[in-house]
UniProtKB/TrEMBL annotation, chains A, B:
The keyword Nucleus does not apply. It holds the Pfam family HD_3. It comes from the Bacteria. Residues 16-179 form the HD domain. Keywords: Hydrolase, Metal-binding. This is HD domain-containing protein.
Length: 194, 194
């Protein structure tokens, strides 16, 4: 076990390289391949940087960016759980808690506790920063699906009602303005002229 | 031309999806494929989050993170220029300036000017935040090369002297502690027992 703080941090940074190999269900916008969780995390951080003014209440954009950079890191151990999956949420959360303990446990203090706390804050989605981060984590794949003509909704036979139910509350809670736009786009996507 | 600020921001966020298809020379640590510039940007932001205390002088980690998130966005238009490339730096910089103007020009104000200024600050590498960001942008591929047993150095026939010359000053300027470690690793990599 490494006890030099710099080397511990580098061990962690090397370990999370594997997030680049965790494949999500969403495609890239040009549909050339599916997105991985590392580039997804980069994209969400850019969403937070640019869309912070649309949060329900003022948020600390720097905290939201950090939260989104690390929100998927547990997937290095447990993989991505698609939104339209039938996995038990309890089993999934238990596995993710263990992964978070192992991965953030590679870090020295205070970073180990700080990053674990930020990850838990995102998962629990009770603070304003976390609610906004969660909303963005739903907005991005929703927009990908709309732009690519259905994306993961087609693959999973997801209806308008299911989309409104699975994305709506989370986006609405973090950003009513973004949900207003997303709802319009979704209604149009599933609409009679589709 | 879109004039609604939210839609302008979403247009920009969709445009930069293409950074996920810009392929760098560096491999992933498991050597399964080459890294793309979007996931590289995510990884560097994580480096900044964890290694901020090793900067030459105290830096604003939040600014460094933002700078690294957007430092490669011009590659959406001009592609990646490898460190060990023979392209003319002047031609390259001219093309990147044009790409930055087009891409950040998709955004409304004040974000358009703010992000362009942050990108230029990184490129010019005169502020302490930018010097540290530039150092990390060299540290990460250097570590990839060491860990993967040579990486892009093997591909390009790069010697110890060239590595010290092409990585050393930039890393040393932003983080003497990181350069001290990197130099040890590089000396060992090219050493007699290699
Ligand atoms: Ca996820």
């Amino acid at each position: 076990m490494q006890t030099n703080p710099l080397l511990q941090k580098l061990t962690f940074l090397h370990e999370i390289d594997r997030l680049k190999s965790v494949i999500r269900q969403s495609p890239l916008l040009d549909r050339s391949r599916k997105e991985n969780s590392a580039e997804h995390s980069w994209h969400l951080a850019m969403y937070a940087l640019l869309l912070q003014d649309y949060a329900t209440v003022p948020v600390d954009a720097n905290r939201v960016i950090k939260m989104l950079l690390l929100h998927d890191i547990v997937e290095v151990d447990v993989g991505d759980t698609p939104l339209h999956s039938s996995a038990s949420p309890e089993d999934q959360y238990h596995a993710e808690i263990q992964a978070a303990a192992r991965l953030f446990g590679l870090l020295p203090e205070p970073e180990s506790s700080e990053l674990l706390a930020l990850w838990k804050e995102f998962e629990e989605a009770q603070t304003e920063d976390a609610k906004f981060a969660k909303a963005l984590d739903r907005v991005q794949p929703l927009l990908v699906n709309v732009i690519t003509g259905g994306g993961t909704w087609n693959d999973n036979g997801v209806s308008l009602e299911l989309v409104l139910q699975r994305y709506g509350p989370t986006i609405q809670r973090g950003s009513p303005i973004l949900w207003q736009l997303c709802e319009q786009l979704v209604q149009k996507h599933f609409g009679p002229n589709q």
